[in-house]
Amino acid sequence: MPPPAPPPSSRRSRWMRATQRLRRWAPLERLAVHAAVGAIHVIAALPARWVLTAADALGSLLSVLDRRGLRAARANLNIVFGDTKTTLEKLRIHRRSYRHTVRALFLLLHLQPLTPKRFGRWVEVDPAMRDAWQTRLLRERGGVLVSGHIGNWELMLGLRVLFQDFPPTVFLAEQIPHGAINDVLKRLRSHGDVVAAFRKGGARAVIAAVAAGGTAALLVDRNVRRQLGGVFAPFMGLEARTSPLPAWIALRHHVPVFPIFCLPTDGGRYRLWLGPDLTTDLPEGDEVARTRELLTRMNAVFEDIIRARPELWNWTLKRWKSRPTVELGRYPAYSLHDPDRA
Known about the structure:
Layout: H1 14-23, H2 26-45, H3 48-65, H4 67-81, H5 87-110, H6 116-122, E1 123-124, H7 133-141, E2 143-147, H8 158-162, E3 169-173, H9 179-189, E4 194-198, H10 199-211, E5 215-219, E6 231-235, E7 238-242, H11 245-253, E8 257-264, E9 270-274, H12 287-308, E10 322-323, E11 336-337
Parallel strand pairs: 1-9, 2-5, 2-8, 3-4, 3-5, 10-11
Antiparallel strand pairs: 6-7, 8-9
Helix pairs in contact: 2-5, 3-5, 11-12
């Protein structure tokens, strides 16, 4: 029997409570949806350089106005870099990180409908990737693609748009408290055989996709509480609650797990990177030990990219919101004690 869920108000942010109150007002929700649809049409019609300029300006502004995000980013940056970077350097990383986050959203809107031509204009893909051993293995057996809020996570699934013989893919996306806006985002993120599923019930959808020979695509750099299945794995020198879903799927369905990222290059374009199979040479043992080892490898890939290019990660994520120790220690002030057993 799963452990009881925590009180619903204990972890909700003021934003969540406010949006849930607004959700009760149907006229405001309809207005928000109309505004979102209108923004899609406007951003899709603008020249690309205007879109990037607007995204950077909005990102810089929000990096200052979002005080809660700024506090989380400062705490995270202090954990990772300590005194090796100055306060000014950390603020610059946060501002550039916010710009990349807004760019990801704006380009999701700007590239609608996402076609192979539009995708190829923005994302460089090595032609050899079509016949690389990773893509051959995915076509033959299906598998799991893991990524995070690094670079442009919205464009990474364009691989399925570019390679028509790539297996059907289910992308597990975040959900916000407005059903109508969720529907809009789901349509934007779905391209042919790439289908977006939300986290509530989405795990069943991605497992079913892999069982049928398809691919699951997961963003796995957020804190996942114990009540939702999260397990502790090392990340940036601290234990962090991590989703075990990619390991569970891989170990039970005998499929590979590949890290995938869409990282920016000069000139505002991106390059798609597909990493090695994280299940290779996993040590023998019980499922718990093998799951931890796979998640440790996965987090290590993320860590290498973040340390090398820290401006590409969304530092406002409360990655260490759960901690295994009663004492705060090196964990940020926002973290909460989340023991393995209640």
